[in-house]
Write a structure and sequence with these properties.
The complex is a heterodimer.
Chain A lengths: L3 E4 L2 E4 L5 E7 L4 E2 L4 E2 L1 E6 L6 E5 L3 E2 L7 E6 L2 E6 L8 E7 L6 E2 L3 E5 L1
Parallel strand pairs in A: 2-13
Antiparallel strand pairs in A: 1-3, 3-10, 4-5, 6-7, 6-11, 7-8, 9-10, 11-12, 11-13
Chain B lengths: L2 E5 L2 E3 L5 E8 L7 E7 L5 E7 L5 E3 L7 E6 L4 E6 L8 E9 L3 E5 L3 E5 L2
Parallel strand pairs in B: 2-11
Antiparallel strand pairs in B: 1-3, 3-8, 4-5, 4-9, 5-6, 7-8, 9-10, 9-11
Classes of the chains: A mainly beta, B mainly beta.
Amino acid sequence: DIVMTQSPDSLAVSLGERATINCRSSQSVLYSSDNKNYLTWYRQKPGQPPELLIYWASTRESGVPDRFSGSGSGTDFTLTISSLQAEDVAVYYCQQYYTTPPTFGGGTKVEIK
Amino acid sequence: EVQLVESGGGLIQPGGSLRLSCAASGLTVSSNYMTWVRQAPGKGLEWVSVIYSGGNTYYADSVKGRFTISRDNSKNTLFLQMDSLRAEDTAVYYCTRLHLRVAFDIWGQGTMVTVSS
């Protein structure tokens, strides 16, 4: 199975400041046939199911605010929140579907400083 | 509006069985890749199973041989039959749709399963 490792485990950011979350996969999740990274980011607010933010490493899901962006390729990826809002207090997960079983990172908890 | 609504969770003794249901509206279960993902209390997300539109099914090693995913096309409903339940199966179980073979884009609210004597 592909192991997904997120860092940091938690971070506290002031409102309006930038938050950066990292995700590393134990093997490349870049499919050569379509040149897409099978890497997805989710936000899970307290008491709610996860919601899709970014797929193919950098494609923003419809309706997701443009303060969220994803980057990276191969084994190293980053989720950036350019200007943290109060509603972004949540746990963020990365996930790969390069192979079955799909696997998730351990999560990064984002709080307000 | 697309919606997934899970039901069937509850408290069950170790070794027991439970069947979860996921009623879909706004999408056709049989035309999509439908999955179950679970989350133990205070823990992260764990994929459980998927059923492809063609009917192929796949399972996490932790549930293989004990859980069965299926669907009823006439009821537009997804199921998860869980047998030989263990304490470590205690979790919120989410029904989700796999989109573009990469991301889970639609999630239900989840149903809680507690395995305890």
